[in-house]
Amino acid sequence: MVSAFETFRRLGPAAFVLKAIISVIVADVLLLGFIMLRRTYRRRYFAKRDGRLFEFRERWDALISGEIPYATWRTKPSDRQLVETMVLDAFEVAGPEESGRLLKFMRASGLVEKSISDARNHQGWRRHHALVALGRTRAPEGIPALAEGLRDRNPETRLAALRGLGQMACPEAAVEILNWVGEAGLVVPALPLQSALVQTCAERPQVLLPYLQHAGASVREVLARVLGEVATPSLGAEVLQFAEDTLPELRAAAARALSYMEPGLAVNVLSELARDPIWFVRLRAIVSLGRLGHGSGTPVLLHGLNDSNRLVRLRAAEALVDLEIEMVPIFEKVIAMGDRYGLHAYLTALENAGLQAQLEGEIRAMRRGSKEVKTRLLEVLRAGPTPPEQNGPQEKVSAVAASRS
Amino acid sequence: MIHFLEASNQVLFYYYLLSNLAYLVMLIIALRTSAAHLRHLESVPLQWIKGSPLAPPITLIAPAHNEEKSICVAVRNLLDLDYPQLEVIVVNDGSDDSTLQMMQQEFRLRLVRAVYVAQVTSAPVRGLYRSDVDARLLVVDKEPAGSKADAVNAGLNAATSPYVCVVDADSVLERDALLRIMVPVLADPERVVSVGGIVRVLNGSEIEGGRMRRVRLPRKSIEVIQVVEYLRAFLIGREAWGRGNMLTIISGAFGIFRTDLVLAVGGYRSHAIGEDFDLVTRLHRHLMEKGADYRIEFVPDPVCWTEVPSDLRSLGRQRARWHKGLLDVLWPNKDMLFRPRYGRIGCLALPYLWLFELLAPVIELGGIATIVLAACLGVLNGALCLQFLLFGYAFATVISIGSVLQEELTYKRYNDWQDVARLVSYCFLEHFPYRQLHMMWRLQGFWQYLRGDMEWKPMKRQGLQSAGTD
Question: Which residues from B are below 8 Å from A162, CB to CB?
Answer without folding.
Answer: none
